[in-house]
Structure formats: C-alpha cells, structure tokens
C-alpha cells in the first residue's frame, strides 16, 4: 500500500481541524502510518487501500513484536490504523474495515509514578531558587504543575486572561480544545499576581500574553520545561522518572489519597473517560493497606 499525500493528507487534516488533536499526537499518527506504509511496500509492493485485509495488518504487527516493540507501542499503532481505516470507511473509499479482525494484545497496566508528598513539600518549601527572573519562573512553574495537575502543553500555553483572581480559578484549554475550570488556592493566586506585577514593573518589554516567560521574555519551550522539572525533582527524589507528567501523577495520587471523589479528579485532570482516572485508585488502595497494617491488631 502506498499512501501518497493526496490520499493521506485528508485524514491528517481531519485530525488537525475537526478532532483538534495536538501537533504531537498528529505526528504520532503520521509516524505509525508511514511505518505501516513502508512495510507493505517492502513486503507486497504497491497495494490498493481497498485490497488490504486483516492478514496484511497482522503480519506487520507480528514483525513489530519480533523487533521487540512493547505491547503498549503496538496497541498505539493499532489505534492509529483503526482511526485511519474508519475515516475512509465512512467516506466510502473502502467498503470493509480490515481492523475488525485485528485484536489488540493485552498490555500490563503501568502504575503511575508519583512524588511523595514529603518530597513535594521539601521542593516547594525548602529548596532555594535563584533570586532572579529564571528562579521566580521556575518556582511558579513547579507550583502550578503540582497545584493544578495540568499538562505540559496546557501550562506553557496558559494565558494571563485565563487566570480569574476573583474566583481563584484557571480556565484551561485541554486536549481537543476542551475547556475546564481548575480551582486554585489563594496562595497560588497571590503568587501568580506577584509574578505578573514583577514582570510588568521590572520587565516592561515582556509580552503580556502568556503567563510564563523565560529570561528573554519568550514563551517557555517544552524541552526547557522538562529540563527545569528534572533538575529540581532530582534534588528531592530518587524516582527514575522526573518529568512534568510525574507532577500531574502526583497531584492526582495525592488528591485520591486524601479522599477526593474519583469523578472530581477526572474533571480536574480533563480526562474524557473515567477509566483513565481509575489507575490512581491503586495507589489509594496501597495507602489503605499501609494504614490497615499499622492500625489493625491482627494485621
């Protein structure tokens, strides 16, 4: 099968303009489809889209498994193909979806890694940050991540206008351009207000759009944010993973451990499905086991 751009592009445009997927997600789809395309051409030569059956797809998936690709990665590629063929089935380009006979391998659910609350407290209360613009930005960035549980893309694109100081809340634009409201503490609201005041007073040339800027007044880039989070988390934890998403996991886990309602956590995280949030209940169960062992006379 060859996916020339005239055929391939409508599906990508659909993901971009109708589904409103992020650029990162769209690139993942493209990567998966190109990989499948290359395999089909190499093994079978030019093949029409309508001629593809589940057998072609199964052989590709088997080759990926032989290469040592994880079940999680294989499932992602299956998901990409399902969306791709479903798109063309609805538009009458194909009459049968070959993915109907393709079964996704069962993958072991990975429990979310999180930073313990004592370590978070050490980070935000005792670690010293540089007394300059970079230090102030880094402190606020880490605080917002942990206090709200928002995603990396949501934070770096957070605009001043999305901060409601009167109601102590943030209006966040999440996946698929879905809006949600996240409450914030008076302390965080005060920190944000001080940060904005400092920017306007001492750095009047900085733009007034995005909330967080680097020392040159530019919007923070994802790689820079990763570096900042990794640097500071390495000071307080031995956890192997020290990414912005770990702070999101920590937010959700600590909320659940302190009795938060599952549906409330789902809304705060911006999950479209409750199943995505339920993974955090495992850590809650582990905490209950710990309490049981310490408190029950026969434990």
UniProtKB/TrEMBL annotation:
Name of this chain's protein: Tyrosine recombinase XerC
Top-level taxon in the UniProt lineage: Bacteria
PANTHER family: PHAGE INTEGRASE-RELATED, TYROSINE RECOMBINASE XERC
Subunit comment: Forms a cyclic heterotetrameric complex composed of two molecules of XerC and two molecules of XerD.
Gene: xerC
Coiled coil: none
UniProt-annotated location(s): Cytoplasm
Domain Tyr recombinase: 110-293
Span of domain Core-binding (CB): 2-89
Protein role: Site-specific tyrosine recombinase, which acts by catalyzing the cutting and rejoining of the recombining DNA molecules. The XerC-XerD complex is essential to convert dimers of the bacterial chromosome into monomers to permit their segregation at cell division. It also contributes to the segregational stability of plasmids.
Active site: 151, 175, 245, 248, 271, 280 (o-(3'-phospho-dna)-tyrosine intermediate)
UniProt similarity note: Belongs to the 'phage' integrase family. XerC subfamily.
GO molecular function, one term: DNA binding
GO BP terms, alphabetized: cell division; chromosome segregation; DNA transposition
GO CC annotation terms, alphabetical: cytoplasm
Keywords, ordered alphabetically: Cell cycle, Cell division, Chromosome partition, Cytoplasm, DNA integration, DNA recombination, DNA-binding
